[in-house]
Amino acid sequence: MKRNRIIEHPILDQLEERKTVTFQFDGKTLTGYERDTIASALLANGIRTLRRHEHSGAPRGIYCNIGHCFECRVTVNGTPNVRACITPIEENMIVESGKQLPSPLNPNNEHVPKTYREYMEMKDGEN
Ligand code: FES
Questions:
Q1: Domain definitions of the chain by residue range
Q2: pTM > 0.85: yes or no
Q3: What's the 2 CA to ligand 1 centre distance in angstroms?
Q4: Taking the domain 2-126, which CATH number applies?
C-alpha cells in the first residue's frame, strides 16, 4: 500500500503510521489508511480510473481533487455520484466505478458506421 505514497517529504516529514481500513472497489478488497479519501486510497493501490464516460466509455479519474469537477464520481454503498476525492474511506465500504451507459440508439454496442462509404461497405458485406 505504501508503493504509491510519498512516505518521506522534505517539508512534511515522514508519513505517519495510521490505522488500516479495508474497503472494496469493483469487488476487489483493498486497504487504505484512516482519513484517506476514496481517491487517494485507490491511487495508493495503483487505480487511476474511477469511472467510464457515460457515452464514450473513455476512462475518467481525478481531475481537480477538490470536489468541484465531479470527474471522480463513484457509487458508494449503493449511493451513486459520490465524489471520491472528498469522501473519506470507511471500514467495509463498497465502492463501484461508474460504467458506460448503453446507447439508446445502439443498445447492443454494435459497430456503427461513421461514414457513408463505411455504411455501404457494411451493407455490401451483408449481401
Ligand atoms: S476530482 Fe474533481 S470533484 Fe473529485
A1: 2-126
A2: no
A3: 23
A4: 3.10.20.440
In the reported structure, the alpha carbon of residue 123 is separated from the centroid of ligand 1 by a whole-number distance in angstroms of 44
Q: To test the ligand 1 pocket, which listed residue (37, 63, 81, 87) has its Cβ within 8 A of the most ligand atoms?
A: 63
What's the gap in Å between 88 CA and the centre of ligand 1? 13
Model confidence at 106: pLDDT above 80: no
**What are 69-98's pLDDT values in tens digits?**
999 999 999 999 999 999 999 999 999 998
Which protein residue's CA is at the shortest distance from atom 3 of ligand 1? 67
Mean pLDDT of the region 15-29: 94
Residue % of the chain over a pLDDT of 90: 62
SS3 per residue for the chain: CHHHCCCEECCCEECCCCCEEEEEECCEEEEEECCCEHHHHHHHCCCCCCEECCCCCCEECCCCCCCCCCCCEEEECCEEEEECCCCECCCCEEEECECCCCCCCCCCCCCCCCCHHHHHHHHHHHC
